[in-house]
Amino acid sequence: MQRPWAVILAAGEGTRMHSSMPKVLHPLCGRPMLWYVLQAARAVTEQQLVVVGYGSEQIKEYFGEDFFYVEQRERLGTGHALLQTLARLPQTGELLVLCGDTPLLQAEILQRLLEHHRRARTAATVLTAEMTDPSGYGRVLRDHNGAVREIVEDLHATAAQQAVREINTGAYCFDLAALKRRLPSLSANPEKKEYYLTDLLPLLTAEGHRVEALMLGDAFPALGINDRAQLARATACLRERINGQLMREGVTMLDPATTYIDWGVKVGRETVIYPQTILEGATEVGEGCLLGPGTHLIDSILKDAVTCRQSTLWESTVEEGARIGPYAYLRPGSVIGPGAKIGDFVEIKNSTIGRGSKIPHLSYVGDATVGSGVNMGAGSIVVNYDGRHKHRTNIEEGAFIGCNSNLVAPLTIGAKAFIGAGSTITRHVPPGSLALSRSPQQVKEGLARRFLEHDQEK
Ligand code: UD1
Ligand code: CA
Predict the structure, then answer these.
(1) Cβ contact 287:269 at 8 Å
(2) Are residues 426 and 286 in the same domain?
(3) Ion ligand 2 — residues with CB under 5 Å?
(4) Catalytic annotation, pick one of 116, 209, 361, 391
(5) Which-ligand-closest: CA of 223?
(6) CATH code for the domain in which residue 64 is found
(7) Which of 230, 266, 293, 325 has the most other CB atoms within 10 Å of its CB?
(8) CA–CA gap between residue 70 and residue 52 (Å, rounded)
(9) 222 pLDDT band (50/70/90 cuts)?
(10) pTM (whole model) above 0.85
């Protein structure tokens, strides 16, 4: 049997979002809402045509050549949008029509819709759902045989019709021959001057076809996103799905409600995630890690057994068994070696830190290569920027950097060198040497009293 085709309606501006970005590009859990619709459509159909209009360039730029696009130049409604694709569709077979703003309808539901449609052998099958609060959606009105008579938009519904809780999800399966015959005769709604796709259904029944409905048991997947409050609600549903899946695979979450993980992020089993942790983009976390509370990982890779508390990591890699935080900030290009420790109030940028090295407190390390077994004392700073250029620093294995030192790049600190606390180092330090640069201490016995007494006079 020929696989069905799909049309995804995504030309609308999304006025209710109050945004300059087309509505369907607004993200949930790291991907635009249209991405989810296209994924689901692709799993069950042969070809996908996306109707674009508002912000079409932005949409094409994001999704590239993977899909066919059809332009709807004027936004004259969902029926008008579908009409633009007619010439591009096969003469016979099945067509799935989806809205770009219902990202929670998964492939498995679309498959059920297709199967229901095939069993019923009708011209059209609508996917419906029963909503506790149906406001804003089209209401499904059925005849005494249970067939769909018509769909009334919220705006035009009478009080009695508004009380109907069965809504149109905006997903349909059509017989292409019937669609091609009847869609061109659709007329605009007299009030809104828009061509409603839903008005096609009575045209089909008038021709003697029965319009079927498949009602979802669970209404959540039917959530349509028209404004940012609905976006937040749909995001919460999706998050529940993502977190649920990870927990079933062996990840512990102390509070899934405050654990925010993007679609596609990988987390290994036996990893424990404390609340307020956000894992974004191309992030991958290994097994047996401890994350959070309050950790934010963006496009970062953590190998197994890493601890990362109250820290932000961005395009960074952390090798096995390393400990990060609390309150560390790893900026792009940071690679933390196995078993290394990056402690509190430490910032690392574009630097490689060797195996087992320790930078435990209050440091900045930028554009540096730090060997293994290095110890950088509290407050030690790599001075990588002279106001015009960035320079590199090499700290070779086993070096000891005393507290509050400034290492002025470009610079090499040789292996097992020792930098005295409080030094400002501007020249290379050969391996095994002691380098010190600080003003000698002066002691004036008995003089402290002068300052203290002065204080008391005030
Ligand atoms: C639509 C349905 C409603 C259903 C709801 C489900 C109609 C008339 N109404 O209402 O019955 O309950 O979806 O969420 O179909 N679009 C275009 N071109 C246009 C207009 C819209 O491509 O000219 C696209 C939009 O980008 C959007 C989709 O069609 O992805 C639905 O449009 P929207 O305006 O959100 O329709 P609703 O009012 O939600
Ligand atoms: Ca909508």
Answers:
(1) yes
(2) yes
(3) 101, 224, 226
(4) 361
(5) 1
(6) 3.90.550.10
(7) 325
(8) 6
(9) very high
(10) yes
